[in-house]
Write a structure and sequence with these properties.
heterodimer, A: 3 domains, three-stranded antiparallel β-sheet, about 40% helix, B: Arc Repressor Mutant, subunit A, two-stranded antiparallel ribbon, 4 helices, about 55% helix
Chain lengths: ~425, ~100
């Protein structure tokens, strides 16, 4: 049984001349290509020999019949190249003709591949845009939401180590995507060019050596990324486990946060048939129900649940007129200071329309109401920026330790009269 | 009418069509015939040869006449003759132009 050896591929097969040249270099050292795996090639040890390798832009199972006959009769042996759309032709016969002699037939053979690369580039670019616009802007805390509502309201923007790791990982991802695009572009350049790929490159060629170094860097980055993901996951799990029973509150039927039926039974009875019949919108009535169960678990907060109910009607002038509005939120912060800061951001945003750095805490004193069973209770009326009509919403914010409850309501009841019911939820 | 992409024929295409004037041939016979006819000047690689045959077959420049195992024998069609003659005339004109310009 012949001895085999595995080697990490130092040049990607996308850049076909370099991959083939590397295989030729190995053959001259007595290592003959046997098969390709994900990122390694298995070689068979043999006597050193001059051997040519060429990549064909077609999977081996599609080269059959007459086509295979022509290749084999010409002295070339066809082999598979792992699980991709290429196949490898090899010969140690110095008289065997090069696979392609003119650029027109060569271009035709790579046309299908070129379409694939063009598609890949579009996908890569879309990914880069997606990562930058969503992930990165969120991670560095400069997204619109954080700017408007405050950093704590943009839970992803918390300045903790895990975010630094994630940011670095994202940058590495972008780098690897860019690398992939550059490689795809190289192949497309061949398609638009007028010269055949050059396989007569010496093994000490600068471009060839640079390609090897670059690929090693990509491997190193991949290892770093993998380790980073494991570390980030571990860190996330360890921080997340410090939060208490917030998970239980993520059930829809949980008592937290307070529900409309508990503070305004009449409105609930009116809206319930609409919910049960799944009437979401018609010409005269608009109802929006949205229950978000803890999608935003973060390192510092565990959001409990949110329930949002809104009805209204369209008047004769086509304006939306609210009839009632209800929203409730329950969350658990890692500690009391964070909970205070979160409520301050909330009230400051509602009352001042912005969240000035360092001044947010003062606003809590201005809206403080007396309530013995919690550490803090605040009440105010505010025009909600996301409400369609010009109506003032009552708002109650409560805190006990790191637990937070926020209730917004527009309807016939006075929210302060329902304080006892709401306080029960965070006691 | 052949596709515009066939005009003008490449040197390889021209010799492939020319070889069918001797007899019906299969791929490997064409490669050998062209190499001998041109004293090794024009050599058809298997990739180029198959791509040309595939294109010619799709454009109905050649048609299959028989097959033995994986070998397929082709002959030139009227469309192929006309394509060859057009190229032949074009090459003659090129030579005439060159000779007249000397």
């Amino acid at each position: 049984m012949s001895e085999t050896i595995k080697k990490l591929i130092p040049v990607t097969e996308v850049n076909s001349p370099y991959f083939c040249i590397w295989l030729q270099e190995m053959a001259e050292q007595g290592l003959i290509y046997k098969e390709k795996n994900f990122c390694t090639v298995e070689f068979e040890k043999s006597n050193p020999e001059k051997r040519r390798y060429r990549l064909l832009n077609k999977p081996i199972y599609r080269i059959k019949g007459e086509e295979r006959e022509i290749y084999e009769e010409s002295g070339w042996k066809l082999m598979s190249v792992g699980y991709n759309s290429l196949s490898l032709a090899t010969t140690n016969n110095p008289d065997a003709e090069e696979l392609f002699n003119d650029i027109r037939s060569y271009k035709k053979s790579i046309r299908r591949k070129w379409i694939g690369y063009a598609f890949a580039i579009v996908v890569w670019l879309w990914w880069i845009y997606h990562i930058y616009s969503d992930t990165m802007s969120g991670l560095i805390g400069e997204d619109d939401y954080a700017a408007e509502y405050g950093k704590l309201h943009s839970l992803d923007s918390e300045p903790v180590a895990i975010n630094v790791i994630l940011a670095v990982l994202s940058l590495l991802c972008i780098f690897m995507f860019v690398m992939a695009i550059v490689r795809d572009l190289r192949t497309i350049r061949v398609f638009f060019g007028s010269s055949m790929p050059n396989y007569e490159i010496p093994y000490d060629d600068r471009g060839y050596i640079r390609e090897k170094k670059l690929n090693n860097a990509v491997y190193a980055l991949a290892v770093v990324m993998l380790a980073g993901i494991v570390c980030a996951g571990g860190l996330y799990a360890s921080i997340g486990s410090g939060l208490s029973d917030g998970a239980a509150a993520l059930q829809y039927e949980n008592s937290r946060p307070v529900r409309l039926a508990e503070i305004d039974r009449k409105s609930w009875d009116k809206i319930r048939p609409l919910i049960e019949n799944s009437v979401s919108e018609d010409a005269n009535t608009n109802i929006d129900i949205d229950y978000m169960a803890g999608d935003d678990n973060s390192r510092y907060f565990r959001n409990a649940a949110r329930e949002q109910l809104q009805t209204g009607r369209i008047d004769e002038e086509d304006n939306y007129v609210a009839e009632f509005y209800f929203y409730s939120y329950y969350g658990e912060a890692k500690d009391a200071d964070l909970a205070v800061a979160y409520l301050a951001e909330e009230a400051s945003h509602d009352l001042n329309g912005k969240v000035p750095e360092g001044e947010v805490i003062k606003v809590l004193d201005e809206i403080n109401i007396s309530c013995d069973d919690v550490d803090y209770a605040g009440y105010y009326e505010s025009e909600m920026p996301y409400s369609d009509g010009k109506y003032k919403v009552q708002k109650l914010i409560l805190r006990k330790g790191g637990k937070i409850e926020i209730v917004e309501y527009y309807g016939p009841e006075n929210l302060k009269d329902k304080l006892d019911i709401i306080v029960e939820k965070i006691k | 009418m052949a596709k515009k992409s066939l005009y003008p024929l490449t040197e390889s295409m021209y010799y492939v069509l020319l070889s069918f004037h001797k007899q019906d041939m299969c791929g490997t016979e064409i490669a050998e015939y062209v190499r001998n006819m041109t004293n090794n000047r024009v050599r058809l690689g298997p990739g180029t040869l198959y791509t040309i045959l595939d294109t010619f077959r799709k454009e109905k420049v050649i048609v299959k006449v028989s097959s033995e195992g994986r070998k397929i024998r082709y002959k030139i069609t009227e469309k192929g003759e006309s394509l060859f003659n057009e190229e032949f005339e074009r090459l003659k004109a090129c030579i005439a132009d060159a000779e007249g310009g000397r």
